[in-house]
């Protein structure tokens, strides 16, 4: 049985990120941190699942985590190229990403 995130009010982005990484690894996938030097707004994680499925994930805390204009622009450009992009704020979002 997997542990759910703490209450929404107290959950930090780092807790969401830790749960995503753990659950992807449990499925035999990879969940790599992405840093694009000199570019703002690129998604936080590269998720590769068996199948193969490749998803770029932007992580936000459940409450108050806003998508910046730079992030919206990158996500739109990536989706226009046919890349799967997901915003992950909580356990339910992780469930959808892994489905």
The quaternary organization reads as single chain
- The Rg value, from CA coordinates, equals 13 Å
Largest sheet: 4 strands, mixed
What's the CATH first level?
Answer: Alpha Beta
Classify the secondary structure makeup into a structural class.
alpha+beta
- Unreliable segments (pLDDT under 50, ≥5 consecutive)? none
The CATH architecture category equals 3-Layer(aba) Sandwich
Summed up, the domain count is 1
- The run of helices and strands is HEEEHEH
Overall 3D shape: globular
Per DSSP, what share of the residues sits in E-state strands of 2 or more residues? 15-25%
Q: Helix fraction?
A: 25-40%
Strand order of the largest sheet: 1-2-3-4
Distance between the termini: 17 Å
Give the count of helical stretches. Answer: 3
Mean pLDDT: 90
The CATH topology: Trna Endonuclease, Chain: A, domain 1
Strand tally is: 4
